[in-house]
Task: structure prediction
Amino acid sequence: MMGHRTPNMTGAEWDTLAGRRFYCYLQRAGVTAGIKRQMRRRERRLGKLESRVR
Result:
């Protein structure tokens, strides 16, 4: 998975990565951590599927 990045699936993920200081809902505790956790889980899941195909 060297250099492989999963595409952003939701608008919340894009907001987290690009414009965190502009959105008030991202300033609450745990919101950003939850979104990043969701991204990491999806990346691991897709990596496992990709390794099975090879």
Observations:
- The mean pLDDT is 83.
- Helices lie at 11-18, 31-53.
- DSSP finds two helices and no strands in the chain.
